[in-house]
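Tokens as discussed.
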């Protein structure tokens, strides 16, 4: 599979964060930060030059484009991927990393191109906030699972029945590897979105996606949550909070709390 690599030349952290949020809505599903640039990846079939130019013009950013193959990306990702520690709660690492400091939970992933590698602030917040949810014996839907980090952690926290869903073929293949690598036995994977799933309800829904998708599926997520169940969602900028709260309230969710890190937020709701 061919990918377009777009190199944005900027060192501003705030601008990079906004770019990641904007580009993820447009289908970019891999991001890498270097000292002087943000690298964004999108499947060639989904690449739109006009949309890219509009975004670059909006933020007055120079950029370059390269075509790369899947294997090229994997090698580059492995070279740059660093282990992530979320306090003393969870470590996210590749199998070639030595476990130097032990945390309560250790997640090993195959470092391929996907949004949920643990480096991004929203993934870190989702992982951190899962500490406050009792997963013992629960049913869980991980909507937009990516590398499967949240689904894997849910099993480690005691969830008994987990469905991990993603509409990206590469993410779907990647989570299958990561489930096996972490010796998980309670995760079922599906490629697609909520409308492709048989109707049922879950104790907990985890959704680390983006504002557009969360708004689109808010009513569906409410219908898929049992009474008293939890919704934990991120992939959101601080400026998205009001519109997401409005949509969640109209759907019927009860707001519990907001967590924030830099310019990103994580919201917890109850049905």
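Sequence:
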């Amino acid at each position: 599979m061919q990918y377009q690599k777009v190199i944005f030349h900027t060192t501003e952290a705030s601008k990079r964060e906004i770019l990641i949020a904007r580009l993820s809505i447009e289908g970019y599903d891999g991001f890498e930060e270097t000292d002087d640039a943000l690298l964004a990846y999108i499947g060639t079939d989904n690449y739109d030059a006009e949309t890219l130019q509009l975004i670059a013009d909006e933020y007055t950013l120079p950029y370059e484009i390269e075509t790369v193959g899947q294997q090229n990306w994997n090698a580059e990702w492995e070279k740059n991927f660093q282990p992530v520690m979320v306090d003393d709660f969870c470590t996210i690492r590749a199998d070639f990393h030595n476990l130097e400091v032990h945390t309560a939970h250790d997640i090993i992933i195959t470092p391929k191109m996907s949004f949920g590698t643990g480096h991004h602030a929203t993934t870190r917040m989702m992982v951190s906030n899962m500490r406050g949810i009792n997963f013992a014996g629960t049913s869980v839907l991980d909507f937009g699972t990516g590398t499967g980090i949240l689904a894997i952690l849910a099993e480690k926290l005691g969830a008994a029945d987990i469905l991990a869903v993603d509409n990206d073929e590469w993410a779907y293949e990647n989570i299958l590897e990561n489930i096996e690598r972490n010796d998980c036995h309670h995760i079922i994977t599906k490629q697609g979105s909520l409308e492709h799933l048989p109707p049922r309800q879950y104790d907990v829904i985890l959704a680390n996606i983006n504002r557009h998708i969360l708004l689109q599926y808010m009513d569906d997520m409410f219908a898929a949550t049992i009474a008293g169940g939890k919704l934990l969602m991120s992939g959101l900028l601080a400026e998205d909070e009001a519109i997401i709260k409005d949509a969640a309230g109209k759907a019927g969710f009860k707001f519990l709390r907001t967590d924030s890190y830099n310019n990103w937020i994580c919201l917890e709701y109850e049905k």
